[in-house]
Amino acid sequence: MISFAVIDEMGNGYAYQMWSDDLQHEQLAEAIGFARRHQVQCTVAGYSVRERVDQNGNTRLQANFG
């Protein structure tokens, strides 16, 4: 699995995971070394939103992008 975060111009962080059965996994794995700390463009192909309860008992929404 490849896991990293994308930070937008506002400073919002979006976690991203790609499993090895994804057709673009090998291509992404080869490009990661060249993309570190560089501006990249990505497309959100899908997302889900769910309620999460944090360690302090606060309920908040969490978006997962794919």
Index terms:
4 strands, globular, alpha+beta, 66 residues, two-stranded antiparallel ribbon
Written description of the protein model:
With 66 residues, this protein is an alpha+beta fold. Helix content is 17%, strand content 39%. It contains one helix and four strands, in the order E-E-H-E-E. Strands 1-2 form a two-stranded antiparallel sheet. The protein has one domain (2-65). The chain is globular, with a radius of gyration of 14 Å. The model has no long low-confidence stretch (mean pLDDT 82).
Count of DSSP helices? 1
Distance between the termini: 14 Å
| Averaged pLDDT | 82
Tertiary shape? globular
Task: Quickly describe the structure.
The protein is of the alpha+beta class and 66 residues long. It has one domain (2-65). The chain has one helix and four strands, in the order ββαββ.
How does the SSE layout of this entry go?
Blueprint: E1 2-7, E2 13-18, H1 25-35, E3 47-53, E4 59-65
Antiparallel strand pairs: 1-2, 3-4
